[in-house]
Design a protein that fits this description.
Helices cover 42% and strands 8% of the residues. The chain has 106 residues and is mainly α.
Length: 106
């Protein structure tokens, strides 16, 4: 259980017009995981934390997906006199020089 948060802490504070910030959601999700791993919650509390964690996880995934779509890269124009332009970045972490780049080491 997280030492700095009381058992049964309320969900991460929502912004004035929506869900909690990305950082607040991550922090709350970490607290939920700590609480679930501690084994001190009742079954009902565990189910409630699990459900809250799944909602936060979906929110975080959506936020990351949206951020990925916003990332663009600058590319040269097709013709020599054409201005550079932006296009969606290919976020494949592998580089042609190092195909294992971007992969987890395990």
């Amino acid at each position: 259980m997280a030492a700095d948060k009381p058992r049964g802490a309320p969900p991460a504070a929502a912004g004035k017009d929506g869900p909690p910030s990305f950082e607040a959601a991550i922090e709350r999700l970490e607290t939920i995981v700590d609480e679930l791993e501690s084994g001190t919650l009742t079954l009902e509390e565990s189910i409630a934390r699990y459900e809250e964690g799944m909602k936060l996880s979906k929110q975080l995934t959506r936020t990351l997906d949206e951020a990925e779509k916003r990332i663009e890269r600058l590319t040269p124009g097709a013709a020599a006199d054409e201005a550079p332009r932006t296009e969606p970045a290919d976020l494949d972490l592998k580089s042609p020089e190092n195909p294992s780049e971007g992969q987890l080491p395990f």
